[in-house]
Every structure is written in structure tokens, then in C-alpha cells.
Design a protein that fits this description.
The protein is mostly helical. The chain is 89% helix and 0% strand.
Length: 266
């Protein structure tokens, strides 16, 4: 299969599978969801760390050639800062719209607390769609850059992306339902959002095809995106569970995620 074929297949499969797994997960009893979700997050953390540090970053350094390690390191740091700023922007937008609607509710005199909360939930649902679409498009860029460096690296990266997208889409699905959408409409919007990864992958493929000298740095940026999600978004959530047994399970499942990516990328 051609590189472009792999990119399209991986981004379509990633968008569909992550959303469908999330939808099926939400159909399970709440008690089971509560018990299983931390395990998904632990495995996804390991998969992301493995893909970033054992697959993408070594490949970027190798492609950059002798003496290019410093530039790859700079690209990695720049990528982490970029995703930090993007997340700050999303959080700022969320906070700004949240405050704006709160203020509007008071100005129009006597809206009930339930009505104000409903409006905020509706805003959150819109924001999660925008943020999810951008996030998935960046995942598509990461997948494209990985496949352009090699099929094995691309497959390992795709597995890591799908692994972290399942708990991410569960959260997005829950926000949409909380915002008043029906299950069918929330699923449709999540599928559309998930398929923005295809657009991101195609744009990256054709852009990088005309600028192959930038490919090692694009791979480093892809590594930065996976590393940032693991360290900034997933690991802090894992630390909320302080029980020893829970910590041991987390370490075990993180190790399983790392081992799977190491095997796939080898």
C-alpha cells in the first residue's frame, strides 16, 4: 500500500474506531465505566510516551542526520510550547464564554440557576466540538508525518493516537450529551469531528511532500504533541488516585502501553 493509502486508512480508522469505542463505552453501566476508564487512561499514557520517545523522536533524530540533534531538540521544545499555548487558548475561550454567559444571565434579571447552567452546558458542547476538531486534525498531522518516515513508525503512532482518543472521545461525548444533544446527534457530531484527522493527514502529506527537508522537524512536532498530551493532560488525572493498588495498576498498564508501541515500532 502507498504511503498516502496508509495515511488515509489510519486516519479514517482512528476517527471511526475511537468514536465508536467511546459510544459503546458509554452504553456500559456507569459503575463499569467508572472502574474501567482509569485503566484506559493508564494504557493510553504508556502508548503515547512510547510512540513519542521510542518511535517518533529516534526517527526524527535519525532523519536529521549527524549534528541535527540540537535542532530536533529545539523543534520538540517548540512543539510542547505550541501545544501549551493552544490549550491555554481553548481554556481561555471556555472561561471567557462561561463568564460572559453568567453575566448575561444576571443582566436579564432573574434567570433561574438551572437555566444559566443549561446555557453554560450548551456553550461547553460547542467548545468541545471546536477543540476536538482541532485536536483530531493535529492527530492526523502526526500520523501523516509518522507514515512518511516509515510504515512501522506510522502504525505505532496510529495505535497510540487511537488509544488516547478513546478516553478523550468518552469525555467529549459526555459533554455533548450534557449540553442537551441526543445520543444519535452527539455520535454524528463526534464522527464528523473525528474525521477531521483525515483532513489534517492529507494536508500534512501534500505539504510535507513539497518540503521533505522539514519532515524530521514535523516528526519532532508530532512527538511533542503526543508527549504533551501524556504529561500535561493524562498523568495529572492519574495522580488523583492515591491508593497503592491503583498506583501499581497504573504503572503496569503504562508499561503495557510502552511495550506494545516498542513491539510495533521495532
Amino acid at each position: 500500500m502507498s504511503t498516502l493509502g496508509w495515511i488515509v486508512l489510519a486516519t479514517v480508522a482512528g476517527g471511526l474506531l475511537s468514536v465508536l469505542f467511546a459510544a459503546l463505552f458509554l452504553l456500559t453501566p456507569e459503575r463499569a465505566r467508572t472502574a474501567l476508564l482509569p485503566h484506559f487512561v493508564s494504557f493510553a499514557t504508556g502508548a503515547l510516551l512510547g510512540a513519542a520517545l521510542l518511535s517518533l523522536l529516534p526517527e526524527a533524530i535519525k532523519m536529521a542526520g549527524r549534528g541535527g540533534e540540537d535542532r530536533i531538540g529545539l523543534a520538540l521544545v517548540a512543539g510542547i510550547l505550541l501545544f501549551f499555548v493552544l490549550e491555554k487558548w481553548v481554556l481561555w475561550r471556555h472561561s471567557h464564554d462561561h463568564d460572559g454567559h453568567d453575566h448575561g444571565g444576571h443582566d436579564h434579571g432573574g434567570r433561574s440557576g438551572a437555566h444559566a447552567i443549561s446555557r453554560q452546558d450548551h456553550v461547553a458542547a460547542k467548545l468541545i466540538l471546536i477543540g476536538d476538531g482541532i485536536h483530531n486534525a493535529l492527530d492526523g498531522v502526526a500520523i501523516a508525518a509518522a507514515f512518511m518516515s516509515g510504515t512501522e513508525v506510522g502504525i505505532a503512532t496510529s495505535v497510540a493516537v487511537i488509544a488516547h482518543e478513546v478516553p478523550h472521545e468518552v469525555g467529549a461525548f459526555a459533554v455533548l450529551l450534557n449540553g442537551g444533544m441526543s445520543r444519535a446527534r452527539a455520535l454524528a457530531f463526534n464522527l464528523l469531528s473525528g474525521l477531521t484527522a483525515v483532513a489534517g493527514g492529507l494536508i500534512a502529506y501534500f505539504a510535507l511532500g513539497h518540503a521533505l527537508g522539514f519532515l524530521p522537524y514535523a516528526i519532532a512536532l508530532a512527538a511533542a504533541s503526543l508527549l504533551y498530551v501524556a504529561v500535561a493532560d493524562l498523568i495529572p488525572g492519574l495522580h488523583r488516585q492515591v491508593a497503592v493498588v491503583a498506583g501499581l495498576f497504573q504503572v503496569l498498564l503504562i508499561g503495557v502501553g510502552v511495550a506494545l508501541i516498542f513491539y510495533l515500532a521495532d
